[in-house]
Design a protein that fits this description.
mainly beta, 16 strands, about 40% strand, 2,3-Dihydroxybiphenyl 1,2-Dioxygenase, domain 1, VOC_core, eight-stranded mixed beta sheet
Amino acid sequence: MTEAWGSAGPDDTAYAPGTPCWVSLMVHGMAATQEFYGELFGWEFQPGPHQLGSYLRAQLDGQEVAGIGQLPPDLHLPIAWTPYFASDDVDETAASVRQCGGTVGVGPLDVAEAGRLAIASDPSGAVFGVWQAARHLGTAITGVPGTPNWNELITRDSSGVVKFYETVFGFEQEPVISADFDYITLHIKGRPVAGIHGVGNALPRDRGPHWMTYFEVADVDAAVAHVADLGGHTLKQPRNTPHGRIATVADPEGAVFSIVRTSRHSD
């Protein structure tokens, strides 16, 4: 998971196709969500683009890191962070999604001069976005607290969907060789960019297969306590892993995400 983001990074002209390049959250309570993430990650917010309705771009030190949008009051969709994968041709990617058994729910559509997007789901129902950059390249700063660090598909069985992602995005796969740990790391040009974690019957029944976004923090235990103070809750307590200390939490509207202090930031 370390050094995960950026086959093309924030200093390059664009993210390499297939690389997670943006994360976005659609919520009902925009003001409360801004307060939660602003306090937790130190984000500030700027409006736009207006084609997405009430939409805010979260920033760290003036650099864009994520997006938060307003759901219509009568639209009761799961509140969840959605990763966007870079594409040179979102229309072609959307066609590939359909050909491989997935579904395109939104788009492809232009977002002013920012770029072109689609929102889709894989054959198991996990939702993700596709972004063809124009003026907006994606997450502009990575590797520091408050930025997306990793994206991981939580599904029943990794082998059931990995071919879909290989075909649609050109991922190369590196399975973990283990009898009791079902995990595949997805690579672009030899660089790890995302993962697929098969959890079998431990898959939450109320969520089904879904993408999980990890955000870097300076101190996982302090962040978990802060989440509780801000009205969120902890789903998995802090634990040490080969990639750093990790916890899984939810914001006040129920959007689940993980926080990590990666091993490269360990003292």
